[in-house]
Design goal:
It is a single chain. The protein has 312 residues and is α+β, with helices and mostly antiparallel strands. The strands form four sheets. Strands 8, 9, 12, 13, 14, 15 and 16 form a seven-stranded antiparallel β-sheet that branches. Strands 1-2-3-7-6 form a five-stranded antiparallel β-sheet. Helix 1 runs parallel beside helix 7 and helix 4 packs across helix 5. It is globular.
Length: 312
Amino acid sequence: MDSSLIKTDLGGQLPLIASGKVREIYMIDETTLLFVATDRISAYDVVLKNGIPSKGALLNLLSAHWFSLLPSLIPSLQTHFVTLDLPQSLLNKPQAEGVRQLQSRSMQVRRLKVLPIESIVRGYITGSAWSEYCKKGTIHGMPVSGEGGSKLKESEKLPRPLWTPSTKAPAGEKDENIHPDQATELVGWKNAKRIEELSLEIYTKARDYAFERGIIIADTKFEFGVDEETHEVVLIDEVLTPDSSRFWPADEYKPGQGQSSFDKQFLRDWLTQSGLKGQVGVEMPEDIRERTASKYAEAYERLVGKKWEEKI
């Protein structure tokens, strides 16, 4: 029997206001939302038919770890995280339909205006950035080179981390890599500048923290909102998880080739090799699900310092 949670159902106890590739968002009140991470998994902008058991809980608890850690490293950073506790309205009905499914996989967050860009930071050249570089010598339209003007190799560490935003596409459509100047057009100069500053600072602090624990963060994606009362830019959504980042084992790193990973690159590779890239309705075989789950669990354990089995 498949134990993964693909869809939540609270029986109308809270209004469902959005459903993304992985998360479902319920409204608690006018200022607070309930983010629920399902076990769905997507690759190449397509959600697969079956999920990864306990993946949603892992993403949720790893994000909570970062939401707790990062403000201590970056005092000016604000996040949308409020608590891992369920709202009182649901605690009053603990046996109700779907409520027990929410333990460990949900968090209460501040309701904010979402800024319409994906804020990607790249510390190493891989993925779509490598593809563009091979064709044009650029990353998101920006000319790049290695130390001393040398040609970059696949997976090579960049001379400095790059802020490389993308559009935030509606459900069912693909995000588009854009030049930072285009991000300014989408969110305004002040917001774009603050997003860039925060993204690079968060990445740098997280990169160093992870490397001490044997993980290279090759690149990662952040999302931001804005507090409409204070006009402050706020870190939202998930943060520094295997879904939103490329995690590589530091002891196996070899520039000039693709890398083994602790993220869903393993799943992407299987889809590509099977001729299933971008296809709808694909169901993962059991061995792929188990190996993907194992990769995610190892990343969690290295970053948090606790066994994943103890948390579920």
